[in-house]
Amino acid sequence: MTREDARFDAVFVGGGPRAVATVVRLVDRLRDSGESTPVRVAIIDAVEIAAGATWRTDQPAEYLNNTTVAATTIHPDASTRMTGPAAPGPTLADWITDVEAAGEHPFADWVIEEARGLRAAEFPTRRLQGVYYRDRLDSAIASGLVDVTEVLGTAVELVARDDIRRVLLTDGSVYSAPIIVLAQGMVQAQPSLEVQALQRTAADHELTYIAPGMPAEQPWELVFPSAEIAPGETVLVRGLGANFFDVVGHLSRQWGGRFEPVDGDAFGRLRYVPSGREPKLVAGSRRGFPYRSKPDGDADPAPFEPRYATRAWFDELSELEGLSLKHDVFPTLAAEFAHAHLAALERWSPGTLRSGWLERLDAASGLPEVEAVLESHVLGERYRWLVDELRRPTRGEHVGQERWRELVHRHVEDELGSMSLPS
C-alpha cells in the first residue's frame, strides 16, 4: 500500500465498541433511507478490531467486565436521545442466550463455556464481551450497506488538506477520507515523570518494574515463578484499585493457587488456597483501602433518585464560569452521599438515627454543615460515617497497625454485607 491510495468515505481511528456502535448506527440510517450503495469504511485499531484493547479476546478469563450482563448493549432503543431511527438489536444478555441455545460458536469453544449459565446480574469476562462486539460488527457488515476494511496499526498523525483528511500510521501507510471518526477508547497516557524515575531506579538496581497500564497488555511473565522471583520473594504493588484484583486473579492462577468458596458463608467469602510458589505481595495505595466492590448476584441495589444533584442542578452549573469543584460542586455531591447513607440506615436500622436529619440536610449550605448532620444524627459509632472518610479513612488521625487492620476489616465486612443485603 502506497501513501497515495486507500481512499474511503470514512476512516475510524480506534476500532473498539465506539467504532462498532457508530457503524451499527450508520447501517440503521442507510437502511431507513433506502440507500443501497455501500459506504466504504476503514477501521484502524492497534490491538483488535471490534473488541479493541479493553475487551480484546486473547486476554485471560480472570479479567471480568466492570458492568453486568444486563447493563450492556451496542444498540440504542427508543429511550436513547438521538437523531435517526430507533433500531434496537440484541443486547449482551440476548446474545448470550442465543449463543447458549446454539450450543456452538465459530470464534472459540470457550465462548460457549462462558456463556452457559451466565445470568443477567453477573459479570461476564471482558473477552466474552469482546466476541459480542465482534459479532455485532459482523452483522453490520453482512447487511451489505457498509464495505469495511479492517486495519491493525497505530495512527500517529491526522492531516487535513482541502476536503480530504489523511490518517498516517506508524508503518507509513495513509488512509484518506472526507470524514474521520476519532473513536478511541481508553487511550494510555505517556509515562509520567514519576514512572520514568521508577523505571530508571529499577534499572539501576537491577529490579523488575512493571509500569501502570492495561492488565491484559502487561508482561506478567516477569513475575511468574522463576529464578528471579522465588517463592516468598517480596513484590511491591502500588494501588488497590480494579487493576489490583485483575493482577491478583491472573497471577494466582499462574502461581498455581486458587480461590475457593467458604462453605455456608452468607456473604460469599472466598478462601485462597496457596500452592507454595507465591511471592509475598505487599500492596498499598494512598488511602490503603481496597477498591469498592460490586454485588455479584441477583440482589440489586435499591433504585437511586438524586435529591440534590439533579438534572436542574447540573444545568445551573453549566451556566457558571470559573467553576470550582471544591466550592461549587462537591458540597452538593457530599449532601447526596450523606442522604444515601442516612436513608439506607433509616430503612435497615431506624433506631440508629435521631429524627429531623432530612430537614437539616436539606438546609445544609456547605460541607461542614453536611458533616455536622452525619455526626449528630447517627446514634453510636458503629454506623457513623463522614464524607471526608472517602478521602481520609481515619479522618486524619494517625493510627497503629492493629487499629488499621480493624478499620480495613470493618470496611470489608460492611462491603460484603451491603452487597448481600443492598439497600
From TrEMBL:
Domain FAD-dependent urate hydroxylase HpyO/Asp monooxygenase CreE-like FAD/NAD(P)-binding residue range list: 11-186
Pfam families: NAD_binding_9 (PF13454)
Region span, Disordered: 284-303
SUPFAM superfamilies xref list: FAD/NAD(P)-binding domain
PANTHER family per UniProt: BLR0577 PROTEIN (PTHR40254)
Listed name of the protein: FAD/NAD(P)-binding protein
Organism this protein belongs to: Candidatus Agrococcus pullicola
